[in-house]
């Protein structure tokens, strides 16, 4: 009676916490990761069938086609070479250990490349892959174990990716609460058992009451365990149902994406044809431009040859005129010196003439003044003689 409310609370929390309808993918990265894991599982299953296919190569030659058959034959040759190399290394062949390791590493690289090539060719034909998978072949034990383990890893990754961090923390907290409740119940049982052992010596009624309490607690734990198992079973069923729905939706998306890939491939081919035509036109134009460039270069060379010849003629005439100019400059220097001497003589003559003219002007001016003075003197002398005669006449 005392554990009933706690049990009801825990049951409600469990149903709320582990509700499969809350597990929804919230990003395209989740789908991409699951797609990669599914493709890896398919590749592992297909690669595990390669040895069986090679053993029955005659029966499937027509179905596989020449390209896949040749790839499988080449793969078998590489496998035989590796087995032969390993057997020779165990028998102590003449090759050194380093050479054997190098050959083995090279053959392993070729073998890996061969496996990838075979898988690519097989996966390019989905109907062939389905036909090969339906063959009643038993895989080797290690391959089957690995594929099964990888499938469990894929399911674990899907569960983890579909669980958000908050839900993960809530689930962890829920499990911790359950563990704490179990621990508390266990401690209570231990305490009650101790009290029961002590009360046996004193009271039978108290022992009976404590037995009832212990029985109630055990019943509560059994009910809790039963409820948890029922909830987990329901969660698993809902998860399988949701997984099936998601798988169907994923297949539909894959079909749509395959159709988009085909459309894009057609567009790519059209663009390639268009670009090739454009490239051909550009190549023709380039050839025409190159021919024009060659013609222009030839014309340029011809013009430059003519210009060079003309330049040489002009340069020769210039050199000749320069030589004549130097002779004329020498004559000009001599004439300039003679001209300077003549100019100096002219200047001296001009100075002498100016001096003589100046002296002549001075003498002329002096002669004029002397003549004027003489004329005045004569006039004054004449006036004086006339005055004297007048005075004498009056006195008489």
From TrEMBL:
CDD domains: IQCD. The keyword Coiled coil applies. Keywords: Cell projection, Cilium, Coiled coil, Cytoplasm, Cytoskeleton, Flagellum. InterPro entries: DRC10 (IPR042815), IQ_motif_EF-hand-BS (IPR000048). It is found in: Cytoplasm, Cytoskeleton, Flagellum axoneme. It comes from the Eukaryota. Residues 175-274, 325-359 form a coiled coil. Transmembrane segments: none annotated. Component of the nexin-dynein regulatory complex (N-DRC). Interacts with CFAP52. Belongs to the DRC10 family. Component of the nexin-dynein regulatory complex (N-DRC), a key regulator of ciliary/flagellar motility which maintains the alignment and integrity of the distal axoneme and regulates microtubule sliding in motile axonemes. This is Dynein regulatory complex protein 10.
């Amino acid at each position: 009676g005392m554990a009933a409310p706690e049990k009801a609370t825990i049951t409600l929390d469990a149903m709320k916490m582990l509700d499969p309808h809350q597990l929804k993918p919230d990003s395209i990265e989740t789908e991409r990761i699951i797609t990669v894991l599914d493709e890896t599982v398919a590749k592992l299953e297909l690669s595990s069938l390669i040895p069986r296919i090679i053993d029955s190569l005659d029966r499937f030659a027509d179905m596989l086609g020449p390209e896949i058959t040749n790839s499988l034959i080449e793969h078998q040759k590489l496998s035989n070479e590796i087995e032969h190399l390993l057997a020779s290394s165990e028998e102590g062949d003449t090759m050194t250990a380093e050479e054997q390791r190098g050959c083995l590493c090279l053959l392993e690289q070729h073998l890996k490349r061969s496996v990838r090539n075979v898988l690519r060719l097989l996966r390019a034909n989905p109907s062939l892959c389905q036909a090969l998978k339906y063959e009643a072949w038993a895989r080797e034990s290690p391959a089957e174990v690995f594929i099964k383990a990888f499938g469990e890893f894929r399911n674990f990754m899907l569960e983890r990716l579909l669980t958000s961090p908050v839900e993960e923390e809530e689930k962890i907290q829920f499990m911790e609460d359950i563990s704490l409740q179990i621990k508390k119940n266990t401690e209570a049982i231990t305490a009650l058992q101790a009290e029961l052992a002590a009360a046996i010596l004193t009271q039978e009624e108290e022992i009976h009451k404590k037995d009832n309490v212990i029985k109630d607690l055990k019943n509560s734990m059994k009910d809790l365990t039963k409820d948890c198992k029922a909830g987990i079973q329901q969660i698993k069923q809902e998860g399988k149902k949701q997984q099936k729905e998601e798988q169907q939706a994923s297949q539909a998306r894959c079909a749509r994406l395959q159709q988009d890939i085909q459309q894009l491939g057609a567009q790519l081919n059209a663009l390639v044809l268009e670009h090739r035509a454009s490239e051909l036109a550009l190549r023709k134009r380039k050839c025409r431009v190159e021919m024009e460039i060659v013609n222009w270069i030839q014309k340029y060379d011809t013009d430059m040859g003519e210009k060079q010849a003309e330049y040489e003629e002009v340069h020769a005439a210039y050199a000749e005129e320069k030589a004549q100019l130097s002779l004329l400059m020498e004559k000009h220097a001599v004439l300039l010196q003679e001209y300077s001497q003549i100019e100096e003589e002219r200047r001296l003559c001009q100075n002498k003439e100016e001096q003589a003219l100046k002296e002549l002007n001075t003498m002329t001016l002096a002669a004029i003044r002397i003549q004027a003075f003489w004329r005045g003197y004569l006039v004054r002398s004449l006036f004086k003689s006339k005055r004297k005669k007048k005075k004498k006449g009056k006195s008489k």
